[in-house]
Design brief:
By secondary structure, the chain is of the alpha/beta class. It is built from 15 helices and ten strands. The strands form two sheets. The protein has a six-stranded parallel β-sheet. It has a four-stranded antiparallel β-sheet with strand order 2-3-1-4, sandwiched between helices.
């Protein structure tokens, strides 16, 4: 089998492309179910977050689904042309795909290195795949390897110290833009996980006037009561924006909550009082052209990258330590993965080596007429030689599989088996008659 991941992320793909390819939970289940019905011998997991969309697949090495077909599926599912996002796509295979997932799960590929949300999102994507019955032995083991790797990175480095979430970086940006954020009136749109993180960071920096607004008033009220902040009804959202200083939006929706026209009217009623909007939702809550309005300062999640880069530079040593853990775990997984494909072939190779050793041993013993004790010693010696040769060959096969390709290693083992078959099928060598020589002259 082979492992493929195809996708795009925040590093090279603008938000206007990412939001078109985003999946909610219902869409993830629908996509996985469709993939499994079309390619029933393959395995799939689909990861969709605010910063990435990635489709993981384990499939037959020859004749299985390709990265190009996976990209085509993403396009078709969202009624897009593949050309619209083709230039942003990456495809990783086998060890590179394994290493990529382990890096993602450990947050080292995140906009905010050390953020804890990504491992929850990876686990949720795997849970949905299990619910859709689109995984089996390979991706099951791979994702559990990713969970264990993430745990090890967090346990053995200081990667998670400090403000390490998109929400935290959003609040840090707000602190840079406000002279005193503690006195600002803040509206948080959305009461999900991101909304809760925003509350935590705002309270940590001393904000006192915070209002939660959520579609479900009950959910918003529950969150507000837990953190002792105010809550407002969804219907009052526009009115609340007329009298606020900072809006941080993280609501889940597929259409803009606010168009340019909406915000122009709000600004007219605000009498041009400046308004800072940080939109960390994907898809976005505010139409991008809102930023064209005078006295409105709109930042999307992609514009948090400068603050996030400062975060990354402070964690360079921890990143290096985390990558070392990832490399080792990727090697361990690939060794197991290669053994699945190479195992039967290596088993055949072992049988041929053993058979050659037994054949030659039997010929030797039949001619030597040694006693039983000597026979056992000779048998043990041949077994040790065969095992040493096998160990040497298997070690080199594993190196080829890891550094080049499993198919290359399989071809090598197959050629060794064919050669061994030829040797084991050769008729026993006949002893040449001893030459009669005359006694030396005296």
């Amino acid at each position: 089998m082979k492992i493929i991941v195809t996708g795009l992320n925040h590093k090279r793909t603008p938000i206007q492309i990412r939001e078109k390819l985003a999946f909610d939970s219902a869409q993830v289940l629908a996509a996985l179910t469709e993939l499994k019905s079309r390619f029933n011998e393959s395995e799939f997991v689909l990861l969709s977050t605010c910063n990435r969309v990635e489709l993981y697949c384990a499939t037959k090495r020859n004749g299985g689904i390709t990265g190009k077909e996976l990209a085509g599926f993403l396009a078709d599912f969202h009624n897009l042309k593949k050309e619209d996002f083709q230039d942003y796509l990456y495809v990783h295979n086998d060890r590179d795909a394994v290493r990529h997932l382990l890096t993602v799960a450990s947050s080292l590929d995140s906009m905010v290195v050390g953020e804890a949300q990504i491992i929850g999102q990876v686990k949720e994507s795997y849970r949905l795949a299990c619910a859709a019955k689109s995984t089996s032995k390979v991706l099951n083991r791979l994702f559990h390897c990713a969970f264990a790797t993430s745990k090890s990175v967090y346990a053995n480095t200081q990667i998670a110290n400090g403000r390490v979430s998109v929400a935290g970086v959003a609040v840090e940006l707000a602190m840079q833009l406000f002279a005193d954020i503690r006195s600002a009136k803040v509206i948080v749109i959305g009461a999900g996980e991101m909304g809760e993180l925003l509350l935590q960071h705002l309270l940590h920096v001393g904000c006192k006037n915070i209002n939660i607004i959520n579609r479900s008033y009950e959910n918003g009220l529950e969150l507000a009561n837990r953190y002792h902040v105010a809550v407002q009804k969804w219907e009052t959202l526009i009115e609340q924006l007329i009298d606020t200083d900072l809006v941080i939006a993280s609501a889940g929706c597929w259409d803009f909550l606010f168009s340019k026209k909406n915000v122009e009217e709000i600004m007219r009623r605000r009498r041009r009082k400046p308004l800072l909007i940080i939109d960390i939702a994907v898809p976005r809550n505010f139409e991008p052209s809102v930023n064209e309005i005078e006295d409105v300062y709109l930042y999307s999640i992609d514009e948090l990258s400068q603050v996030a880069e400062q975060n990354r530079k402070m964690r360079e040593d921890d990143i290096a330590a985390g990558l070392a853990i990832i490399e080792k775990n990727a090697d361990d997984f690939i060794e197991w993965f290669n053994a699945r494909d190479l195992g039967p072939l290596i088993g055949q190779m072992k049988e041929k080596f053993i058979q050659i050793g037994q054949n030659d041993l039997e010929q030797f013993l039949a001619k030597s007429g040694q006693n039983a004790l000597c026979n056992e010693s000779a048998k043990s010696m041949v077994e040790r030689i065969v095992n040493k040769m096998l160990h040497c060959v298997i070690k080199n096969v594993n190196i080829i599989a890891r550094e080049q390709d499993t198919s290359e290693a399989a071809e090598l083992v197959d050629s060794i088996i064919r050669g061994a078959e030829g040797i084991s099928s050769e008729p026993p060598a006949k002893d040449k008659p001893k030459a009669h020589t005359s006694p030396p002259s005296i």
